[in-house]
Amino acid sequence: MDTSILFEPIQIGKIELKNRIAMSPMNMGYTGPEGYASEQTNAWYATRARGGFGLIITECVVANPYPWRGSDSLNPLLLESQNKYRQLSQLADVIHSYKGTKVFMQLSPGWGRQGHPDLEHESIASGAPSAIPMEMDLRKFNKGWAKQVKRLGIDLIDELGGVEKIQSLSDEDYEGLKEIAFPYIQEHAPQFYHVVKGHTPRELTIAEIAKLEDFMVEQACAAYSLSYDGVELHTPHGYLLHQFLSPRSNQRSDIYGGSTENRARVVTNILERIRKKVGPDKVLGCRLSGDELMPDGLTHAEACKMVKLFTDAGANYFNISQGSYENPGAAFAPDGEDDFTRWAPGFKDASGGMPIITPSFIHPETAAAAISSGKTDIISLGRQSIADPYWPAKVKAGRSEDIMKCTRCQQCYMNLFESRWIRCSVNLTAGFEKYYPELWQNDGLMDARARKFMDKRADLPQI
Ligand SMILES: Cc1cc2nc3c(=O)[nH]c(=O)nc-3n(C[C@H](O)[C@H](O)[C@H](O)COP(=O)(O)O)c2cc1C
Questions:
Q1: DSSP structural state of residue 203
Q2: Any alpha helices (H) in 282-352, and if so which ranges?
Q3: Residues paired with 56 in a beta bridge
Q4: Closest Cα to atom 23, ligand 1: which residue?
Q5: 60 lines ligand 1 (CB under 6 A)
Q6: Beta strands in 32-151, from DSSP E residues, in sequence order
Q7: So where are the chain's domains?
Q8: Given the DSSP bridges, would you call strands 202-203 and 127-128 parallel, antiparallel or unpaired?
């Protein structure tokens, strides 16, 4: 199949992408001490820029100085103070040094009830819209997750008849399973337990929410001045902003709870204020779950209503996702590919035709078909970009057969959650980029002015 559509340029706001292949935002935990971008952070992204991605969306960067942000055990990049500006501007400059590559910063106020604060200090509860704890539905495990929990020492799934049997349990039978499974996970894999069953978060006050909005607006504006081509609000996957949107996690009775408009208010406020400050031309997007896929959660119909509200507030593109920690198979890590395109037409209509980014592809043909069908405008690769950073360049060179395919083994995710250095089972260089400069060597792609400087230096005699 002809995959040339992947290499057609596309406009988001005033920014032109050289192709329609984006790298999905992924928190790899390679951050250095105190939340600074590290050499490995830079080398990680430089390798993907070298591989030909037209757009790199950074991992979720946390703009919140308070301990209730509850995010630190995943070791994210922080943008809670001006101290972080230099390293983050260096990261944008490194990515830009690969000709034509654009970079958007994904920005978040924190993880809310999915915050794992017990690993930091049990007296600091995460802040959330309501004091409702998160609890994973173990029936939503898929094959990849089952494989990883087994690696952690949880043999229970096989003993109970396999992942398919668990997936089909009735509510009543599942209650029985929970009584065995939760204590078992807590005992055998305590490092993972916080992902399965959260602590009870603290309900944020209106004054704290106002502060949260202030920080997000301030740091989003900073991101543009640090040379990021766009800013994306981190609003999916059951994290803090999503918790405001969802009736499952937001049961407030003030101006931030109840109606769709009230639950969306924190995001619309942030978008409106950023747009007012930066003007109409800047790229400002939202990553949003097309459906939470949990009972009483955010439905696709309501997500579309929110897309309309967010467009009116100033968003000019949308990045799709789905689910939350409570539904892990759907949320982050489907076993197959192309599971998210189903939400794209709804977002496209609701936004009045704004560009849509859709993740979760492995094969170039499937990715090209998602665009040529008119459903999405840009495809993004998450786990596949870990498995093979050169996917775009290989496809363009007609060498798709050389692509190292992601096996959906979920090791990357599980390494993140068990607080380990992220590795990949098919790409043994992943996580070691800083030690292998040949992976990100800038060849002829280097900015022409830098190339001229290098060429002049090359024949200088050494004295
Ligand atoms: C290790 C890891 C970390 C992730 N971190 C983020 C994140 O910071 N922000 C986000 O919006 N999505 C995050 N995701 C989700 C991905 O962006 C993507 O939506 C998901 O992996 C499904 O796409 P894929 O099938 O192409 O991997 C992460 C995924 C992985 C594997």
A1: E
A2: 300-313, 328-331, 344-350
A3: 23, 103
A4: 360
A5: yes
A6: 55-62, 102-108, 127-128
A7: 4-117+202-406+422-450, 133-196
A8: parallel
Structure tokens at 314: 């100033």
Mean of the pLDDT values across residues 274-300?
97
Confidence of residue 122 (pLDDT cuts 50, 70, 90): low
Decide if 114 contacts 245 (C-beta within 8 A).
no
Task: Please write down the HEC assignment for all residues of 119-155.
Answer: HCCCCCCCEECCCCCCECCHHHCCHHHHHHHHHCCCC
Q: Which of 105, 293, 332, 422 to probe ligand 1 with, by most ligand atoms within 8 A of CB? A: 332
Q: Is the pLDDT of residue 3 over 60?
A: yes
Name the residue with tokens 């337990």.
193
Higher pLDDT, 171 or 331: 171
Neighbours of 393 (CB within 10 A): 17
In the prediction, which pLDDT does 444 show? 59
pLDDT confidence band for 419 (50 / 70 / 90): confident
Q: And the tokens for 171?
A: 């509510």
Predicted TM-score of the model (pTM): 0.95
pLDDT of residue 123: 66
The burial of 230, by beta-carbon neighbours within 10 Å (0-12 exposed, 13-18 middle, 19 or more buried), is given as buried
For the 4-117+202-406+422-450 domain, the top CATH level (class) is: alpha beta
- CA–CA gap between residue 153 and residue 159 (Å, rounded): 13
22 in ligand 1 pocket by Cβ < 6 Å? Answer: no
Q: In Å, how far are 243, 320, 351 from 247, measured between CA atoms?
A: 8, 19, 22
- Per-residue pLDDT averaged across 378-385, rounded? 98
- Which residues, in sequence order, are bridge partners of residue 286? 233, 318
Pairing status of strand 10-12 against strand 15-17: antiparallel
